[in-house]
């Protein structure tokens, strides 16, 4: 991935951190996105820079639940690195509980990040993406499962991602 530029949302810890580091190990320059925990993002940047393989990294603050912040994130990545080739939309929140207890606020919290956020991150990245670019949306096995107890909101939020991906792949064919 030498010469490629990747943005990974929610990459200050967990799966996003692992994705960012793996992309860097393969030579990509990585935009490490975080919403709140700057320390984690800065640590990932340090780990990437310490690889010494020509990759690079920088931390970018943006709450992907906010469309304007997602747009600005992609603008900032392009301004910093000169282009955008790969977008890994990884940010997400979990929710457990019986559906009878789910409040509208909890539903909106989960769908704002996990579903709406991923859609608009993909849109923002696509508008700035180079030919041959890649958009990766993180789903969950629970989105495909036959049913997971007390997981309706989270599973539903992730189930939409698979459908987004199929439709977006067709629409984005012009940038193959």
UniProtKB/TrEMBL annotation:
Q: Which GO terms describe its molecular function?
A: oxidoreductase activity
Q: Which InterPro entries match?
A: NAD(P)-bd_dom_sf, Sc_DH/Rdtase_CS, SDR_fam
Q: Which SUPFAM superfamilies match?
A: NAD(P)-binding Rossmann-fold domains (SSF51735)
Query: What domain of life?
Result: Eukaryota
Q: What keywords appear on the UniProt entry?
A: NADP, Oxidoreductase
Q: Which PROSITE patterns match?
A: ADH_SHORT (PS00061)
Q: Name the family the entry cites.
A: Belongs to the short-chain dehydrogenases/reductases (SDR) family.
Could you tell me what this protein is called? 1,3,8-trihydroxynaphthalene reductase
């Amino acid at each position: 991935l030498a010469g490629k530029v990747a943005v990974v949302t929610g990459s200050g810890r967990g799966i996003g951190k692992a994705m960012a580091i793996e992309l860097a190990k393969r030579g990509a320059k990585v935009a490490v996105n975080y919403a709140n925990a700057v320390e984690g993002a800065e640590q990932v940047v340090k780990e990437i820079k310490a690889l010494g393989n020509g990759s690079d990294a920088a931390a970018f603050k943006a709450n992907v639940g906010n469309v304007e912040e997602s747009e600005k994130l992609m603008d900032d990545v392009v301004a910093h690195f000169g282009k955008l080739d790969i977008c890994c939309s990884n940010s997400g929140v979990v929710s457990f509980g019986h559906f009878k207890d789910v409040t509208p606020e909890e539903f909106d919290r989960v769908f704002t990040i996990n579903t709406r956020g991923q859609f608009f991150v993909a849109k923002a990245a696509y508008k700035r993406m180079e030919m041959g670019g890649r958009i990766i949306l993180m789903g969950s096995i629970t989105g495909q499962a036959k049913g997971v107890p007390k997981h309706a909101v989270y599973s539903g939020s992730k189930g939409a991602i698979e459908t987004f991906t199929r439709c977006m792949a067709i629409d984005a064919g012009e940038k193959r």
